[in-house]
Design a protein that fits this description.
Strand order of the largest sheet: 1-5-4-2-3
Shape: elongated
Distance between the termini: 43 Å
Number of strands: 12
CATH class of the largest domain: Alpha Beta
CATH architecture of the largest domain: 3-Layer(aba) Sandwich
Number of domains: 2
Helix content: 40-55%
Order of helices and strands: EHEHEHHHEHEHEHEHHEEEHEHHHHHEH
Largest sheet: 5 strands, parallel
Strand content: 5-15%
C-alpha cells in the first residue's frame, strides 16, 4: 500500500526515508538521515528536463522510462538493504513523478510505502519554520579560549539541552576555525540539520547555545534564531588570560604552520601589519604562546565590542575556577537561580 503523509507524520514512524533525487540535489541539501537512491543521474535529469521544456511532458516521460528501465530491479534490491522489513518512506523534489514512480514499484514488490506530500520542498518550508519559534535560550559567552564548546558538551552529557552551532557548521568560529580539516556543509544542509536538532528539543525548557557572531565560517545563523540569541540572557565566562593561553596553545599549537600563517594573513588588515609580521615570525619560530598572545589582543577587542552592544540587564558574569566538569555543574546551578525569561 502507499499513503501520502507530511514530515510531522513521518518523524513519528521511525522508518527509513528514500530521497530519489539526483546525487547533486542530495549533496546541496537533504533531510538528515535520508538515504539517496537516485532515479536519474545528474546528467540524465538534465536530459529529461530539457526534453520536457523543448518537446513535451509525454516525451520526457518516455525518455525517463527508457533511461530507468534496466534500473528498477536494482532499486528494489537497494531498498531491501535499507528497509528489510519493507516499510519505507519516499520523496523527490516536490512529491511528483520521481517519488510516485519509485513508490509504485516498491508497492508492487510488497513494500508498505509512505510518500511525502510536497517532497523535499516541504521539508525546507518545515525547517525554516522551526527557527521562527520562540526558544528559551541560555547563551554561553566568554573570550576566545574560555572553553565554551567543551563546557557545552559536558552540559549535554549531564542531560542539559544544548545546540552546538560550531559542530553543526563544522567550524570553530575564528579565522582558524576549519582547524585545517573540517569541511563545512552547504548553507542549506546546515539549516536542515540545525532545524532537525531544534525539533527534538523542548522549546519551553532552557536550551544552551554558544555566543556566536551571525556567521560561523561561511555559514549564516538563520535570522529569527539569531535575534532570539541576541535577546536572551548571556552568561559571560570570566577566565584568566593565562588559562586561556594554555588552552589555545594546546588547541592550535599542533596545527600545520603553513595553515596558521595563511589564516593569519587573512586578518592582516584587522590585526595590523606590525602585529601580523610578529605573529608569523612567532609561528615560524615555534613560539606558539607569543603567537596566541598577539591574536588575543585582536579577538578580545572584538568580543568586548560585541558585549557592549547587549542589554546590560541580560549579562550575567560567571567566574570559572575549576575544570570543565566542575564548571558545568556550577553553571547549571547558576543558571537555575537566574530570573527566568518569558517566551514571546
Amino acid at each position: 500500500m502507499t499513503k501520502a503523509i507530511d514530515f510531522e507524520e513521518y518523524f513519528k514512524l521511525n522508518i527509513p526515508l528514500l530521497d530519489v533525487r539526483t546525487p547533486l540535489e542530495f549533496a546541496q541539501g537533504h533531510v538528515p538521515g535520508a538515504f539517496n537512491l537516485p532515479i536519474f543521474s545528474n546528467e540524465e535529469r538534465v536530459q529529461v528536463g530539457t526534453t520536457y521544456k523543448q518537446q513535451s511532458r509525454e516525451q520526457a516521460i518516455l525518455l525517463g522510462l527508457d533511461l530507468t528501465g534496466p534500473k528498477w530491479s536494482g532499486f528494489i534490491r537497494e531498498a531491501l538493504k535499507i528497509a528489510p522489513d519493507k516499510r519505507i518512506a519516499v520523496h523527490c523534489w516536490r512529491g511528483g513523478m520521481r517519488s510516485g514512480a519509485m513508490a509504485w514499484v516498491l508497492d508492487l514488490y510488497g513494500f508498505e510505502v509512505y510518500t511525502i506530500a510536497g517532497g523535499y520542498k516541504s521539508y525546507r518550508r518545515w525547517a525554516l519554520a522551526q527557527f521562527e519559534k520562540p526558544f528559551n535560550l541560555i547563551v554561553l559567552g566568554g573570550m576566545t579560549g574560555s572553553g565554551k564548546t567543551q563546557i557545552l558538551r559536558e552540559l549535554r552529557a549531564k542531560a542539559e539541552q544544548v545546540i552546538d552551532l560550531e559542530d553543526l557548521a563544522q567550524h570553530q568560529g575564528s579565522t582558524f576555525g576549519t582547524m585545517n580539516k573540517l569541511i563545512q556543509p552547504t548553507q542549506e544542509q546546515f539549516e536542515n540539520n540545525f532545524a532537525f536538532e531544534l525539533y527534538q528539543l523542548d522549546a519551553a525548557k532552557p536550551i544552551w547555545v554558544e555566543d556566536e557572531s551571525l556567521t560561523i565560517g561561511k555559514r549564516i545563523i538563520p535570522g529569527a534564531f539569531w535575534s532570539n540569541m541576541r535577546s536572551s540572557m548571556l552568561i559571560n565566562l570570566l577566565v584568566s588570560e593565562e588559562c586561556r593561553l594554555e588552552f589555545l596553545v594546546k588547541e592550535y599549537g599542533c596545527l600545520d604552520k603553513d595553515f596558521l600563517i595563511e589564516c593569519t594573513e587573512r586578518v592582516r588588515k584587522r590585526l595590523g601589519p606590525e602585529q601580523t609580521k610578529h605573529a608569523i615570525e612567532a609561528i615560524r619560530e615555534d613560539r606558539m604562546a607569543d603567537f596566541i598572545r598577539l591574536l588575543l589582543v585582536y579577538y578580545d577587542k572584538n568580543y568586548r565590542r560585541g558585549l557592549a552592544k547587549r542589554n546590560p540587564e541580560q549579562l550575567h558574569p560567571f567566574e570559572r575556577r575549576g575544570d570543565i566538569q566542575t564548571t558545568a555543574n556550577e553553571l547549571k546551578s547558576f543558571a537555575g537561580a537566574l530570573p527566568q525569561q518569558s517566551l514571546s
